[in-house]
Amino acid sequence: MEGGWHMPDSAVRDASTSAAPAAIEGFPAEQVLGFLREMLVYRRFEQKAEEAYAIGKIGGFCHLHTGQEGVALGFVGPLRPDDYALSAYREHTLALAKGISARAAMAELYGRVGGCSGGKGGSMHLFSAKHNFMGGWGIVGGQIPLATGLGWAARYRGEDRVCVCFLGDAAVNQGSFHESLNMAAIWKLPVIYVVENNGYGMGTAFNRVTTTPMVEKSRAHGIPAHYVDGQDVLAVWRLMEDLLDRVRKGAGPQFVDAETYRFKGHSMSDPVSGTYRSKEEVESRVREDDPIAHVRDLLIQSGHLTRESLERMDEEVRELVEDAADFADRSPLPPEDSLHEFVYSDMDVHGRLFFDGRGG
Amino acid sequence: MDGGAEMAVMTYRDALNEALAEEMERDDSVFLMGEEVAEYDGAYKVSRGLLDRFGDARVVDTPISELGFAGLGVGAAMAGLRPVIEFMTFNFAFLALDQVINNAAKTHYMTNGQLHVPIVFRGPNGSALQLAAQHSQACETYYVHAPGVKLVNPATPADAKGLLKAAIRDDDPVVVMESELLYNARGDVPEGEHVVPLGVADVKAEGTDVTIISHGQMVHVALQAARTLEKEDISAEVLDLRSLRPLDMEAILGSVHKTNRAVYVEECWPFTGIGAQIVALIQDEGFDDLDAPVQRITQADVPMPYARNLEKQSKPDAARVVDACRKVLYRN
After folding, report:
1. Which CATH number fits domain B7-190: 3.40.50.300, 3.30.70.790, 3.90.1300.10, 3.40.50.970?
2. What is the pTM of this model?
3. Is B135 tagged catalytic?
4. What CATH topology corresponds to B202-328?
5. Rounded-to-integer distance, Cα B11 and Cα B158, Å
6. Structure confidence by residue, pLDDT tens digits, B149-177
7. Model confidence over B109-142: pLDDT tens digits?
8. What is the CATH number of the domain that holds A55?
9. Which of B73, B110, B147 faces A125 most closely, judged by CB atoms?
């Protein structure tokens, strides 16, 4: 159930003898190898988080992105460093994709001072202003107006930055979604709204809570809609490059239905399968629809990957993730005297800000 | 602090307008957004003339989407702009409360100081006249409850101008509650640079026998009560908090130390109202100065009724404040 990315022996034998073409579906082979490695980092990072959660090193809610790596890489990879990205609470790998180090992300999951939010945010609130990764938000749909505002700021200042806003399928039933898309359309804001459509809002199948298809959700607001198979990172990357180009040139907001699948439970406290989806369904999607296996197979078939090179790559990735976990382990807990720090920008003000008898 | 400044007599509404215009002139990152703020000149005309002066990129009419444009403002503030978000009234701002509490107030903390949210949420608040249950209520408690939020509620045109300017310059989310019944109130306002720092209370009338503490339009009820008490030879001090968070505890305790008696007047409901907090603080930190239990005068514990007589009955008035003062002075 870890995802079907393991190397099948049969594939290796067939691949290593043929001459390798320079490009795979229009992408340089080196770039596709890079995609595989990056998505392996995401997969291994989440596996490590799962292990750490099981032994109590990570607390609270923890929502894994396993199975949705193609969406993370394909939509975030083509961004410029000054472009904004933000999501709800299933955002670990999106943060990695935007440039937050595995160390800083893992330490945040551990609630340590070396975390990207200093240990005050946790799994659901990863931030890095430096990388323009703007969260990490815990209320379904609550981040959509924020993304709209980031796009507003870019337009207000005459910048050609773009904001990509991730949301889950269930969030399109929130008022915040429709209010935001309407405003983004009125003011032609440079925002790309990406629905990571994994088919379930927690345990409720999307088709039980709507009567219209996902790609129609932006139609009432006059925002162009696009569909993409989120398990095909090459297709996602191509679409995103095209959308970024259009939006930077002033095309206004875009809406994407990225079909994907969550290989794990809604959160760590939710079984992988159960009352709302069958074991068979999950097993078949994991077997047939793994974004990492998809790229791996392309690389094998084109002669750019062997069992040995994949194992070397995976070994490096495992080391990187182990290093992140070691860093998180070694990073201290936030100092107790930082409890009230950063509630307000300036604590040295007239009057009293805190009423617990403890704050400054 | 503005000694020698030229004064102009103007309404509370125009003082707010002047603050907005001056801050927009001073700082390009300030913009005003809300329902009817631009072409209509503001539902209460606070933004009159600003569209012509600053253009539609900075004075922005929105759809009726309180949650949406409040959140848009928070996002813009995260990017470093200084949005002023107008709620047509705070009655409508409940729809946006998630964005104010969960997003605006917590972001600086959750990001460990990486992001600031320098935003102002402003609009009329408090009881109005015969607007009934959903358009006539005081909303302070919902906001000041949350760490990360600052809140001011001016009682005079001068304070309206000075506090709004301070709020716009502040790096944190500030809720500026304008008292709906005060928009036409007139008073002296210093011209040009006039900034009233957050967290500084103001003695609106000096006295020695009892302290009446209040904020916003209830300050005028307190002043009216003080004038009545004067005829009974009772000297009441009226302390206008101006800012609820940060709160000027020094001013509260200093006045209670002088008078030994306190009455709180507010338009919020009594249960967990502002007065409940003030009473607790005075008890914790000024108990030895008290000669009588602190009294609270609040809105009646009912939704605002429409009928004129019931509405009047439900609201704090000077007579009830006078009674409370007599009670803490054991004169009834």
Report:
1. 3.40.50.970
2. 0.96
3. yes
4. Rossmann fold (3.40.50)
5. 9
6. 999 999 999 999 999 999 999 999 999 99
7. 999 999 999 999 999 999 999 999 999 999 999 9
8. 3.40.50.970
9. B110
Choice among B18, B22, B35, B66 that is catalytic: B66
What is each CA distance from A142 to A89, A173, B70, B71, B144, in whole angstroms? 11, 12, 11, 8, 21
CA of A327 vs chain B CAs: smallest distance (Å): 19
pLDDT tens digit sequence for B182-194: 999 999 999 889 9
Close Cβ partners of B73 (under 8 Å, ≥ 6 residues apart): A149, B33, B83, B85, B119, B121
> What are the extents of the domains in chain B?
7-190, 202-328
Q: Do domains B7-190 and B202-328 have the same CATH topology?
A: yes
Q: What is the pLDDT of residue A5?
A: 53
In a domain, residue A99? The reply is yes
Enclosing domain of residue A102: 9-332
CA distance B33 to B62: 7
pLDDT tier, A274 (very low <50, low <70, confident <90, very high otherwise): confident
- Residues with Cβ within 8 Å of residue A167, at least 6 apart in sequence: A87, A88, A141, A143, A144, A177, A193, A194, A195, A196
Q: Is ipTM > 0.85 here?
A: yes
Q: Best of B62, B74, B78, B247 to disrupt the A interface by mutation (most A CBs within 10 Å)?
A: B78
Give me the residue from A144, A183, A343 closest to B69, CB to CB.
A183
